[in-house]
């Protein structure tokens, strides 16, 4: 996905390896790994910051129960500005 990024007033067109973007609000990052590495969460937070998105979900398919073990939902400061 080609994403325009504003870096200190300079507009860049960057290609991010984004898995899913839902309703132009939620970034979904998909993995199939034994253990969630903190690097994956840092990557998700970076995508959220670069694209100005308030919410991200990291889903790991290498687990017994995706609902209980295989997902992490994260929000950033933009989330607090959303209307209820």
Assign an overall shape: globular
Strand order of the largest sheet: 3-4-5-6
Described by strand count, sense and barrel closure, the largest sheet is: 4 strands, mixed
Poorly predicted runs are none
Helical proportion? 10-25%
Given helix and strand content, the structural type is alpha+beta
CA radius of gyration: 14 Å
What is the number of helices?
Answer: 1
Q: Give the count of structural domains.
A: 1
**Average pLDDT metric:** 88
Order of helices and strands: EEEEHEE
Number of strands: 6
Beginning-to-end CA distance, first to last residue: 29 Å
Q: Estimate the strand proportion.
A: 35-45%
Question: What oligomeric assembly is this protein in?
Answer: single chain
Topology:
Elements: E1 2-7, E2 10-15, E3 20-22, E4 26-31, H1 38-51, E5 55-60, E6 71-75
Parallel strand pairs: 4-5
Antiparallel strand pairs: 1-2, 3-4, 5-6
Q: Your description of this structure?
A:
- The chain is an alpha+beta fold.
- The protein has one domain.
- Helix content is about 15%, strand content about 40%.
- It is built from 1 helix and 6 strands; from the N terminus they run E-E-E-E-H-E-E.
- It has one helix at about 40-50; strands at about 1-5, 10-15, 20, 25-30, 55-60, 70-75.
- The strands form 2 sheets. Strands 3-4-5-6 form a 4-stranded mixed sheet, with helices on one face.
- About 10% of the residues are buried.
């Amino acid at each position: 996905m080609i994403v325009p990024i504003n870096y200190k007033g300079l507009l860049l067109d960057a290609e991010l390896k984004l898995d899913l973007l839902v309703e132009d609000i939620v970034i979904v990052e998909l993995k199939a790994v034994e253990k969630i590495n903190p690097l994956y969460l840092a990557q998700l937070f970076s995508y959220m910051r670069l694209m100005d998105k308030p919410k991200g979900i990291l889903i790991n398919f290498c687990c017994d129960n995706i609902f209980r073990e295989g997902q992490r939902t994260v929000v950033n400061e933009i989330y607090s500005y959303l209307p209820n």
